[in-house]
Structure formats: structure tokens, C-alpha cells
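We close this part of the discussion by returning to an individual protein. The sequence in question and its C-alpha cells are set out directly beneath this paragraph:
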Amino acid sequence: MSDYIHKSYNKSLLLYHFVCPIKYRRSVLTDSVSQTFKTVCLQIEERFEINFVEIGLDDNHVHFLIQSVPMNSPKKIIGAVKSITAKEIFRLHPEVKRLLWGGKFWTSGYYVNTVGQYANEEVIKKYLQNQGKSKYTKLHRNQLKLF
């Protein structure tokens, strides 16, 4: 279980699940590269307000469960992680750069989802509806728009 992060005027528990594919879907995560990857991620934790709750390596992509503070957007978090890990892996394992044809380590995209410790969207809706003594009124519900 993750712990709350306490700052001067706030308390937060923000968890994100990221999935990042390796460029060209190459299988470059050998045992030594994986160990370097873990070491680099733990060094990132020391310098940034990013906590790696879990890191899962698959054949050609990586799963991260990351906790951070509200000031760090998901884009900023994964940007830092992808940038630093790629530079360090290329520096420490030049054979990986050759396998990726001298290009980038990561694809440009990623998947991100928030992770709730106590509830999902439906539980939160029911909680809101049962608050107070009067009848619940839905003031606004954002609907997905195509354009």
C-alpha cells in the first residue's frame, strides 16, 4: 500500500499506471539492462518527487506504478522517466543502441491511467449522491466530445 505524501498545506495520494513501449517493439531488456533500469529509476526517486511503487518489465514494454505530488503532471513525470532512463541505458549499454539502429529507446507514446486506492468512478458517484440531508442534484456531467 502506498502512503500519503505530506507537504506544508496538502496531503495527497496520487498513483499513476504508465505503460511505455520500447521503440520498434524490440526485446532489449536483458538481465543486465534490467538491473541498470532499476538502478536508474531508484536514482530518479532520489532527485525528483517521484516514487516508483512498482516497475514491471515485459518483453518489449515497461509498466510503471508511480506515486507523485500534485505539482507534477503525468506528462512531466513520464517525460522525466523516459528521458533519463533512455540516456543512461544508452550510455551504460551501447549494444542496446545498436539493436535500436542508433535511434530512440522509447516510442513517442505511452498509456497512463490513474489508480484509486479506495474507490473507482462508480463508488465516488454513489458517495456524492449520498452526501448531505437533502436530495442530490447533478449540476454538471462532462460528456466526451469528438471535436
